[in-house]
């Protein structure tokens, strides 16, 4: 729990305790008339302002994820943490993978393949991203993407689509923006799990 939330919860708990102790017998007779109140305590989740610092751009897309796609989300988050990068890097990575492969670890697609693009990020062996075996390993492909992201000066302060496009060099540079909200939601859901 972050410090501000912890202090708030403790302050409220302290006031509730003090109110019961100091209210005396006048307030005590109403205790049977009181209705139970549900109190929600939220676990630490990444701050939305950190996840989407510029707000979302344009219409947002969303897909329902299957178990394989969810496992790939978790692999991207784990690789981001292992690289020592913040939640925002995971948001950019997941949004990029949502655009490139819908979070599916794609092998060679034959005639439907975009050149020799493979994996979660549709990275190309012929462009130096690694071997086909490496590129289709979620940890490796995420680490390769993050290495490219780190080389982008000021990526932390860029809109998502600019940061992703600088790494990916896509024919559709603005397409990454549509996945920012879902990527942020996924990072919020799985970062601390």
Overview of this structure, please?
The structure is a single chain. This protein is 51% helix and 0% strand. It is mainly alpha-helical. The chain has two domains: 1-44, no CATH class; 48-190, Lysozyme (Orthogonal Bundle). The longest helix is centred in the first third of the chain and has 26 residues, at 3-28. It is globular. 31% of the residues are buried. The model is unreliable at 1-43 (pLDDT under 50). Residues 1-23 form the signal peptide. Keywords: Signal. This is Secreted protein.
Main traits of this protein?
globular, 193 residues, disordered N terminus, mainly alpha, 0% strand, Lysozyme, 51% helix, 2 domains
Taken from the alpha-carbon principal axes, the silhouette is: globular
Ends apart, CA distance between termini: 14 Å
Uncertain parts:
1-43
In percent, how helical is the residue content? 40-55%
The biggest sheet amounts to: none
Q: Strand-residue fraction? A: under 5%
Classification by helices and strands? mainly alpha
Total beta strands: 0
CATH topology descriptor of the largest domain: Lysozyme
CA radius of gyration: 23 Å
Number of helices: 8
Number of domains: 2
The CATH architecture designation of the largest domain is: Orthogonal Bundle
Protein name: Secreted protein
Keywords: Signal
Signal peptide: 1-23
